[in-house]
């Protein structure tokens, strides 16, 4: 079996892998990218990984479709707009989502072609001396070698032993993106990003949604004030969220899913038509590493790397969901660029402290940096300023008054430690905090920047002013 040699082989074509491949090609390397994902309709190579095929992009497509329908049936009346007997065609909605995914699959393929990146379809296994074998879907095996290898194999949903995915009644995020009709009763295990987003989609379209979260606190990773504001809005929307609810049993009986859980009141049960299990994700390393490759896994099953994403094996790197750090598409992309540049002899670095988090519900939730609790736990002296969207002219004009912006700054240096937001379009506004923190900016810096009026960004300006108790449009 003849071997083809490359300067770099990337295993995985998700947002970490394909970006790393393109950047390396820009830097003059001969690059191949190997991926096993198959298109939903044609079974052909579908570049983009989980994020593009069954994650970030398709979920946002459904979130937007469901938002349009919800606004038409619940909010347009406030604007004097009426529509009778509005209906949602789920098939058309899913078809639109699939079309968007395929469009971006083709976009990544075109970028590979333009940058002369070789795309190889099949499952890759890394062996010693940076040899990679690839088995295609016909069982044919080919072999490649490279000076450098980047492992970007991504992650897969965690499956509960008592709630196995059947693709029909008990589903993962992929299954919840492909229902052929609106389930009358939709259950979700896990009130994290995926659970809240997909719960929101089907709630807007008419489902009765029940979310069971084992932890006692809602959105424990977010700042407590923001989590409280978000929880209040979700409750108004009719999302039935049970905290401290530990699921113990799941049974499918006559096309219904019977879920048993325990909470402070004892054993409880709920019956739903579809159940989404979204309790987290784990690194995907199945058949990725041959015994002789030298790459090690952590006790959590992630690929072991140092601060520069190097595995300790000469020329072998790993990025994205399969290594430590947040499982976020944009984190994976930045790691991919950093590693490609380090391989080329350039400096490469990513600061995990300024990686933004976003939940695309309505209102959206976003944050960057430390929470108030983290500052307390770390003994960091801090001060805060917050401002509600209800006092922002643009938000009121848009009928999007829910939520707030909160800025946390160091009590002595005034340097911004974190920014936390809940409200319309905060997925975009959070980057004011990201940029300010990257440049070691202070709350005073944000407070002195002129923000256009009327805009939603004025809430950021006012929150920064409020850090020193000088917000203009609220009592300090």
UniProtKB/TrEMBL annotation:
Enzyme Commission code: 1.8.1.4
Top class in the EC scheme: oxidoreductase
Record-linked InterPro entries: Class-I_Pyr_Nuc-Dis_Oxidored, FAD/NAD-bd_sf, FAD/NAD-binding_dom, FAD/NAD-linked_Rdtase_dimer_sf, Lipoamide_DH, Pyr_nuc-diS_OxRdtase, Pyr_nucl-diS_OxRdtase_dimer, Pyr_OxRdtase_I_AS
Cofactor: FAD
Family matches, as Gene3D superfamilies: 3.30.390.30, FAD/NAD(P)-binding domain
Sequence ranges assigned to domain FAD/NAD(P)-binding in this UniProt record: 6-336
Record's subcellular location: Cytoplasm
Reaction(s) this enzyme catalyzes, per UniProt: N(6)-[(R)-dihydrolipoyl]-L-lysyl-[protein] + NAD(+) = N(6)-[(R)-lipoyl]-L-lysyl-[protein] + NADH + H(+)
Pfam families: Pyr_redox_2, Pyr_redox_dim
Keyword terms, alphabetized: Cytoplasm, Disulfide bond, FAD, Flavoprotein, NAD, Oxidoreductase, Redox-active center
GO molecular function, one term: dihydrolipoyl dehydrogenase (NADH) activity
Cofactor annotation remark: Binds 1 FAD per subunit.
Domain of life according to the entry: Bacteria
Pyridine nucleotide-disulphide oxidoreductase dimerisation domain boundaries: 355-464
Similarity comment: Belongs to the class-I pyridine nucleotide-disulfide oxidoreductase family.
Family matches, as NCBIfam families: lipoamide_DH (TIGR01350)
Additional remark text: The active site is a redox-active disulfide bond.
Protein name in UniProt: Dihydrolipoyl dehydrogenase
Protein source organism: Pseudomarimonas salicorniae
Gene name of the record: lpdA
């Amino acid at each position: 079996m003849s071997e083809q040699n490359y300067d770099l082989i990337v295993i995985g074509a998700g947002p970490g892998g394909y970006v790393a491949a393109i950047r390396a090609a820009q830097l003059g390397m001969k690059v191949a990218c190997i991926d096993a994902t198959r298109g939903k309709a044609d079974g052909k190579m579908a570049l983009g990984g989980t994020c593009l095929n069954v994650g970030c992009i398709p979920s946002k497509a459904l979130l937007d479709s469901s938002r349009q329908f919800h606004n038409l049936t619940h909010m347009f009346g406030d604007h004097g707009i009426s529509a009778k007997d509005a209906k949602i065609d789920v098939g058309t909605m899913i078809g639109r989502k699939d079309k968007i995914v395929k469009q971006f699959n083709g976009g990544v393929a075109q970028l590979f072609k333009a940058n002369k990146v070789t795309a190889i379809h099949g499952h890759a296994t890394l062996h010693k001396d940076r040899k990679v074998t690839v088995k295609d879907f016909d069982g044919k095996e080919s072999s490649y070698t490279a000076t450098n290898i980047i492992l970007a194999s991504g992650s897969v949903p965690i499956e509960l032993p008592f709630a196995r995915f059947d693709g029909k009644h008990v589903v993962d995020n992929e299954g919840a993106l492909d229902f052929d009709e609106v389930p009358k009763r939709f259950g979700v295990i896990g009130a994290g990003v995926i659970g809240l987003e997909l719960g929101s989609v089907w709630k807007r379209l008419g489902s009765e949604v029940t979310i069971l979260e084992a932890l006692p606190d809602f959105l424990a990773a977010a700042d407590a004030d923001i989590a409280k504001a978000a929880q209040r809005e979700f409750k108004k929307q009719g999302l039935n969220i049970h905290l401290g609810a530990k699921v113990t049993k799941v049974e499918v009986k006559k096309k219904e899913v019977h879920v048993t859980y325990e909470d402070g009141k004892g054993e409880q049960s709920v019956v739903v038509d579809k159940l989404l299990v979204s309790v987290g994700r784990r690194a995907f390393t199945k058949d990725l590493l041959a015994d002789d490759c030298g790459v090690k896994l952590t006790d959590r099953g992630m690929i072991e790397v140092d601060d520069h994403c190097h595995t300790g094996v000469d020329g072998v790197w790993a990025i994205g969901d399969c290594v430590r750090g947040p499982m976020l598409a944009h984190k994976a992309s930045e790691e991919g660029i950093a590693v490609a540049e380090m391989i080329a002899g350039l400096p490469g670095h990513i600061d995990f402290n300024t990686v933004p988090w976003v939940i695309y519900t309505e209102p959206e939730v976003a944050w960057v940096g430390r929470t108030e609790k983290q500052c307390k736990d770390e003994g960091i002296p801090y001060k805060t300023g917050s401002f509600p969207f209800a006092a922002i002219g643009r938000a009121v004009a848009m009928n999007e008054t829910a939520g707030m912006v909160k800025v946390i700054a160091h009590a002595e240096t005034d340097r911004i430690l974190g920014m936390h937001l809940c409200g319309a379009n905060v997925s975009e506004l959070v980057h004011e905090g990201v940029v300010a923190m990257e440049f070691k900016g202070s709350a005073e810096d944000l407070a002195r920047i002129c923000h256009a009026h009327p805009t939603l960004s004025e809430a950021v300006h006012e929150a920064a002013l409020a850090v020193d108790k000088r917000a203009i449009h609220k009592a300090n």
